[in-house]
Amino acid sequence: MSEAVLIDTENTERAYEIDGTLIVAVQDAVEADDRVGLLELLDPFHPADIADIYEQISEKERKAFTALWGKDFDGEVLAEIDEGLLDDVFEELSDEVVSEAFKDLDTDDVVDLIEDLDEPHQERVLETLEDSDRVAVEQALSYPENSAGRLMQRELVMAPTHWNVGQAIDYLRNEKGLPDQFYDVVMVDPTLTPVGKVPLSSLMSNARKVMMTDIMDEEFRTIPVMQEQEDVAYAFNQYNMVSAPVVDEEDRLVGVITIDDAMEVLEDEAEEDIKRLAGVGDESLTDNMWSTTRQRFPWLAVNLVTSVLASIVIAQFADTIEAIVALAVLMPIVASMGGNAGTQTLTVAVRALATKDLTPANAWRVIRRELSVGLLNGLLFAVIIGMIGYYWYSMPMLGVVLALAMVGNLVVAGLAGILVPLGLDKVGIDPALASGAFVTTVTDIVGFFAFLGFAAMLLL
């Protein structure tokens, strides 16, 4: 069965998604111990597609799948597979297969994989590497986690400033140890300090006698080896870079970061923010029941505390609720609307902080905008909910109470949604980590207090 049949590239809703037919075919081949059939199935597929198969079958099937694949295992799959599955896969790979699997991987991929493995598997991988590769990987691992030193690859192409285009082309044709993919030739002085870079497009479009320094792009940026990965990814996105040399404290060239690695960091950061806003931590669909429960429990515990605080506010108005039972029916509406409005503002604010679009320079303008949006939405929904309250219970003042509480809570929700992440960022706390709990607490308490407070003043 061809790849075109098993991966639908034309259906815009399910484009590039693995068809269930392939999953079943792989499961059948594994169950029948049909290694030849399995290899025929996998042959046309990209390693990323095979990684998707791993993520959609059970743990028992994954181990049997890996064992049956055996010595033909494609190391590129390891670079694509979910990090939570790596240890399961490694348990079924022989040392010979592990050595072969890592042979063709760039150092940045090897470092990324080793970071996600348990310590016994880390030592096992290092032992299978060639001496030069092991030294490069160990040196990369010596840099702080989430630094450019961990992200960079050692394999790069550099040339001295006295070369011409012809010399560079001859070098590229004869050199056996070139990276599998590269985009630029980094120009260095005798101290190995980068002074510019020549894109391959410029190299191939100029005559052999042209000096490399005459066509090099001097408007290039170097990345300090200790730079945070998040900032590296931002620089790539901000300045439309394809690759960038990495330098040590003495400005000597030590590696290069390419666009694929930078974009992976951007994706990871965005995913991390989404998960933290939802309070699910660093989990994935492949985590087991106990691991998922352990990660979600703390956030649910925080939510329990905030709910108790809201309940305490409600308890202060027990007599009011007892006198007008309709309040118990309607008060969740105000709190829910405030919570949703706060989450909308919060999501935009957290993302804007991550992309450096929200800064002290424009913070007050954004705060005023969110205050205005909250007020306008509050007025619009005040009319709607006020009419509902009036017609539902035939109590004009109940409609007024609902309207006033709605305006107040949506204004507060907008302010909380922007001020809470700004405040947390100011004190060095990740806004995505704690903003949700604070904003929910504020909107619940303010919503209940406003609604029941106005009811006590105007209805009793």
What can be said about the biggest beta sheet? Answer: 3 strands, mixed
**Poorly predicted spans:** 1-5
Per DSSP E runs of 2 or more residues, the count of β-strands stands at 8
| Major beta sheet, strand line-up | 3-4-5
Shape designation:
globular
By CATH, the superfamily of the largest domain comes out as: SLC41 divalent cation transporters, integral membrane domain
* Average pLDDT taken over every residue: 86
Number of domains: 3
End-to-end separation in angstroms reads: 75 Å
- Name the structural class: mainly alpha
User: Mind telling me the C-alpha Rg?
Assistant: 29 Å
Helix content: 55-70%
Taken as a percent bin, the fraction of beta residues is 5-15%
What is the CATH architecture term of the largest domain? Orthogonal Bundle
**CATH hierarchy class name of the largest domain:** Mainly Alpha
Helix segment count? Answer: 23
Write down the CATH topology of the largest domain: Tetracycline Repressor, domain 2
Annotate the secondary structure layout.
Blueprint: H1 3-6, E1 7-8, E2 17-18, H2 20-31, H3 35-42, H4 47-56, H5 59-69, H6 76-80, H7 86-90, H8 95-103, H9 107-116, H10 119-128, H11 131-141, H12 148-151, E3 158-160, H13 165-174, E4 184-188, E5 194-199, H14 200-204, H15 212-215, E6 223-224, H16 229-239, E7 243-247, E8 253-258, H17 259-278, H18 289-315, H19 318-323, H20 326-354, H21 363-393, H22 396-426, H23 431-458
Parallel strand pairs: 3-4, 6-7
Antiparallel strand pairs: 1-2, 4-5, 7-8
